[in-house]
Structure formats: C-alpha cells, structure tokens
Amino acid sequence: MAKRLARDDFAHMISFGTFKPVGYTVLAFADEAAARGALARLSAGGFKDEDVLVASSENLFPRVKEQMKESTGMVAAQGYEVVLMKRYLEIATHGAWWLMVWSPHEAEVASIKSALALQHPLSAAHYGRIMIEDLSEPPVGVAAA
Hints:
By secondary structure, the chain is an alpha+beta fold. The protein has helices at residues 32-44, 57-60, 64-71, 80-92, 106-115, and strands at 14-15, 18-19, 24-29, 52-56, 97-102, 123-127, 132-134.
C-alpha cells in the first residue's frame, strides 16, 4: 500500500533507479509563482498542507543526471518511468517548480484536475501502484488535432 511520505523523504520515491512516488500526482510548473498559485487552488479545493510537497528542481532532483544514468539500466529501461524521468530532466533544466500531491484514490485525482482546470501544469502524472497516468493537457508529446 502506498503511504504518505515526509517533506524531505524524496529518496524513498526511487524504484529501480527511477523516480516513482506511488500514490502521488506530480505536477511541474514553470516557476515558483505558478506553483504557489496552483497550491492556493489545491488548498481552496480541500487539500491540506500535509497533502502537498512543494519543491524546486534543485531540491527534488539534486541528482537528476545521475538518476537518468541509473534509470536507463536493463531493468528500469523497460518502464514508462524512464520516459517521465527524461521529461522531468528536461523540465528541471529550466528551473521548474514541482507540486507532489498525495492522491492515492481516484477522487483526489479528480479534485486535482478540477482545481487546475484553468492553469495547466507543464507536466502532470499520477503514480498508481501499477500504472502511471499522464494527466498533462494535452499529454506531453501529443500534438493537438
């Protein structure tokens, strides 16, 4: 079962060398102001302070380049986690800010989508136990029709 982690417990969000925070929705924003604006909307939507981790790219991915080398190993290279790590690496190089929202159930994921309907993050993904759901609008890498 997924469990809520402490604010500085990012090391436990690594699985086979890749970032995999099960039970969380990971949202990337261009800068701190955008992330704080999204945090205010999430709070207004009922999320508590302890439900949301806020981090700069420097804090969340201090070893992102090393993690990418690890994540391309034989076992990890087979998962969608690697695709997301590459996306996150690119976003992190531009100084993005991140919200990690504790959302182990579909109801919380729906609340996140609703709260952020007017402010789309650069990237959004919900990490379930088995599946990762890309919540980006439109999904990153998918051209609009």
